[in-house]
Amino acid sequence: MIRNITLAGILVSLLNTTNVYAHIKMKNTHSQLDSILHSKGIIINNGFQENFKHKVLNDRQSTIDTSSRYTNIEFEVYSDAMNTIDSFLYFFKDNNFKVLSHCIGFSCGNSMALASKIQSDNFLSDKQKQQYILFYNDYNWFSLHLSSYENKTFIFYRSVFDKKLKNSLELLFINKNNFELSKEVIAKLDNYIMLINTNSKSYTVIGHTDSSGQISHNQVLSQKRAMRVYDYLISNGVNKDRLNVVYAGESTPLHSNKTITGRELNRRVELRESKNL
């Protein structure tokens, strides 16, 4: 079964002139990755997905911008797909990417649940042959999903760009299901509000969770965290028309969810300067 799904909940910030070098570097990265993909597989579909969705939150409306680049490759020989995975691993490690998650075979769990969770085109897979890897570097995520079924082998590759802009604030919610503002978070927000009030720029509030619990629960929890920060900003004089709200759930970790510390650091809300109004 082939299905295209946009990687939901991820903010893609438009690059300004200060990010030109990073943009060129990322284009070079894609060029090198494309050469790896072309070497042994046949690209059956690819593209750049971008949706603009609106959700009404009580009497407020928040905009969620989602965007990602994807490629779906078919291999005639399973070993060629495995060699391609190895080439990706070497490339990312040589270029200082962190491996946030890597599973092989049965350790990945249910193949259809995995594919749905990471929004891969390939929903069916022999559980013994599947593989998933998530890489991260400087607010850019790259995921690979290898699936093999009915004598066909595929690698679904997706990249998400979320370049961290200047004037960014990160607020941590250490407790697993917490979305209340601690004294430390409030102190940081109060200082940030002073910065916001010195300009007329727009800002984005992004809620995140770790990977504990159900995906749907984490999506709601990230919404609650983002909205709690949003409400605090509004109640302290920030114009709501200058704010966007995004809830990314568990989809964009900055650290491995395999450790207690990593999970704590992934439970966060980011507040960052957006494109000027």
Notes on the structure:
The protein has 277 residues and is of the alpha+beta class. Helices cover 32% and strands 31% of the residues. The protein contains 6 helices and 10 strands; from the N terminus they run αββαβαββββαβαβαβ. The longest helix has 21 residues, at 20-40. Residues 1-24 and 51-65 have low confidence and may be disordered.
* Range of strand content: 25-35%
Q: What structural class do the secondary elements suggest?
A: alpha+beta
Could you give the order of strands across the largest sheet? Answer: 1-2-6-5-4-3
> How many H/I helices?
6
Distance between the termini: 42 Å
Query: What is the overall pLDDT average?
Result: 77
Fraction of helical residues: 25-40%
Q: Work out the radius of gyration.
A: 19 Å
Major sheet summary line? 6 strands, antiparallel
Low-confidence stretches: 1-24, 51-65
| Beta strand count | 10
What would the principal axes of the Cα set say about the shape? elongated
Write the H/E string, N to C: HEEHEHEEEEHEHEHE
Keywords:
disordered N terminus, 4-stranded mixed β-sheet, 32% helix, 6-stranded antiparallel β-sheet, alpha+beta
Question: Concise description?
Answer:
The protein is of the alpha+beta class and 277 residues long. The protein has helices at 20-40, 78-94, 111-118, 183-196, 215-235, 260-266; strands at 42-57, 60-75, 98-104, 131-136, 140-149, 152-161, 169-172, 203-207, 243-247, 268-273. The chain has six helices and ten strands, in the order αββαβαββββαβαβαβ.
